[in-house]
Design goal:
The complex is a heterodimer of chains A (340) and B (206). Chain A is mainly α and 340 residues long. Chain A is 64% helix and 2% strand. In chain A, a hairpin with a 2-residue loop joins strand 1 and strand 2. In chain A, helix 3 runs parallel beside helix 9. Classes of the chains: A mainly alpha (340), B alpha+beta (206). At the A-B interface, helix 1 and helix 10 of A face helix 2 of B.
């Protein structure tokens, strides 16, 4: 069993360039997802969605962001100033940092320089992701707490409990894949899917991971942190203007990150089925296409399922998802040992 | 029950034996006995874990199928400013005052019956005498001032019913917003003017 080549080391200037490119790409992708979500939600509800700003409403995200950025930066008198300003930043930085890990392609030669089409290829891929997922929780928790509002605080508390409970299942669902691929590097995991995408042997892991990801990104039907009906806006109730925009940005970027992880880990990353080997520059588009499929699924589920009650969310996470994820990991472990 | 209820602040006088013998502060609780017309809903036994998991999965898939079907259909939105909902012929929109087509005289004779019938009190009529030199209406008098305050009008159509000469009728125009309240007081000239037909009429049988 040979391990895939991971941890390809690059010059420092390539790394800096890649960091800028990744930030720029994620900045471009978020408005697209935002618009896609609003248009698709409209179509799911037999209406058009935004169609006034620009052709087919294409400039709607721009208008939204302009509106938010030109608003006054206010904060409640009871808020804790420093943390109140810091919390949205934590959310956005962790989201972008997690985005850096998603491989959009293998190592390519660009103008004769070998460049990996990913931010970094760490040898602890999923652990890095979960670490940043855990730090992202501080963005929600601190934001909710430092707002000095009961609704924000309740939303933050819910977010904290939710993130912790579902991160366990999410991690355990990945354990099966890691055991099968025998590597923690995300590019390594993609290379290990040459024969068959992991969605087939790890179907249960895929479903568990997807379900846990809905909770992890605070999306419907698990958007308890921002349950409008009971908590006004949840942890971001007291936020407005650019800070709210950062939270909003981070939320959609998290959706993209999760889509990217699902693509990488379960859908074979940049690989195409039936032995099709396109040239290297096609790889990022393959990944983007797969990511948009998963993002579509996110939006589709949001349009379909009603929000869970809080105790249902907790009992589902601990009593259904966690045992299933554990069982999945155990069965995979036994199968890996038996077949090798 | 007895633990939950707090003891009375003053102890009961001994001259109330029927109260002190009753349980827990003298409150008698009658058991709920449903009458005969109460139908008890019978529920199926709670499904097992595998069954309920399958049911959840199946129902989720059914819901996803439903929403996907909606996405493939055309939206039902009427894009209002460009596309207007057609009105029925008897739709009660903005009022119109009428003239005789042959003589060009106003039909309104200034009788103020419409103002009397108006429940919102939004019509103001000031009548004046017709003279041979200055003949405005076909009758003895005419409306020198005829104003409808459309910000008060409730579009009930009683003015139309009250009018003995069919001088005032309800039109089809419903786009009556303005920037100033005073602009919504329609004068006689505005009501007599041939109105812009901005609203499409619904076809027969539509």
């Amino acid at each position: 069993m040979t391990l895939a080549l991971v941890g390809y080391y690059e010059e420092w200037w390539i790394q800096v360039l890649k960091a800028i490119v990744i930030f720029a790409v994620s900045l471009q992708l978020v408005p697209v997802v935002l618009l896609a979500e609003r248009k698709l939600l409209g179509r799911f509800q037999a209406r058009y969605g935004p169609n006034r700003v620009g052709p087919y409403g294409a400039l709607q995200p721009l208008a939204d962001i302009l509106k938010l950025l030109t608003k006054e930066q206010f904060r409640p008198r009871t808020s804790v100033g420093f943390l109140f300003a810091l919390a949205p930043l934590i959310s956005i930085v962790t989201a972008v940092a997690a985005f850096a890990l998603i491989p959009f392609g293998n190592v390519q030669r660009i103008f004769g320089t070998p460049v990996g089409l990913y931010g970094i290829d760490v040898s602890i891929g999923p652990l890095y992701l979960f670490a940043f997922g855990a730090i992202a929780f501080y963005g929600i928790m601190l934001g909710g707490w430092s707002s000095g509002s009961k609704y924000s605080f309740l939303g933050a508390m819910r977010g904290a409990a939710q993130l912790i409970s579902y991160e366990v299942s999410q991690g355990l669902a990945l354990v099966g894949v890691i055991m099968t691929a025998q590597t923690l590097s995300l590019t390594g995991i993609v290379q290990a899917q040459k024969g068959m995408w992991f969605v087939v042997p790890q179907l249960f892991g895929f479903l568990i991971f997807l379900t846990a990801s809905f909770a992890e990104t605070n999306r419907a039907p698990f958007d308890l942190t921002e349950a409008d009906a009971e908590l006004v806006g949840g942890y971001n109730t007291e936020y407005g203007g650019g800070r709210f925009a950062s939270y909003y940005f981070a939320e959609y970027l998290n959706v993209l990150v999760v889509s990217g992880i699902v693509t990488t880990v379960f859908l074979g990353g940049w690989l195409l089925p039936f032995g099709i080997h396109p040239p290297g520059w096609v790889d990022p588009f393959v990944v983007l296409a797969k990511m948009s499929l998963i993002t579509f699924l996110f939006i589709w589920v949001r349009a379909t399922l009603p929000r869970l009650r809080y105790d249902q969310l907790m009992s589902f996470g601990w009593k259904a998802l966690l045992p299933l994820a554990t069982l999945n990991a155990l069965v995979t472990a036994v199968l890996v040992v038996v077949t090798h | 029950m007895s633990e939950a209820t707090t003891p009375r602040p003053a102890p009961l006088p001994p001259s109330a034996p029927q109260l002190s013998s009753a349980p827990a502060g003298g409150v008698t609780v009658t058991a709920w006995c449903p009458s005969e017309d109460v139908v008890e809903v019978t529920r199926t036994p709670a499904p097992g874990p595998a069954r309920s998991a399958w049911r959840t999965f199946r129902e989720t898939a059914r819901g996803l199928k439903t929403t996907f079907g909606r996405m493939l259909e055309r939206p039902v939105t009427v894009e209002y400013p460009e596309q207007k909902t057609p009105v029925y012929p008897r739709f009660r929109g903005r009022h119109k005052l009428h003239k005789f087509e042959d003589t060009g005289l106003e039909k309104c004779v200034g009788c103020s019956l419409c103002a009397a019938a108006c429940p919102a009190d939004c019509i103001r009529v000031v009548a004046a005498e017709n003279t041979p030199e200055h003949r405005v209406s076909a009758g003895e008098r005419y409306a020198a001032v005829y104003e409808i305050n459309l910000s008060r009008c409730i579009f009930c159509g009683y003015c139309e019913v009250a009018c003995p000469f069919d001088a005032i009728t309800m039109g089809h125009d419903y786009e009556l917003s303005d920037y100033d309240r005073t602009d919504l007081i329609f004068t006689k000239e505005m009501l007599l003017a041939e109105p812009l037909e901005r609203t499409p009429l619904r076809n027969e049988g539509e």
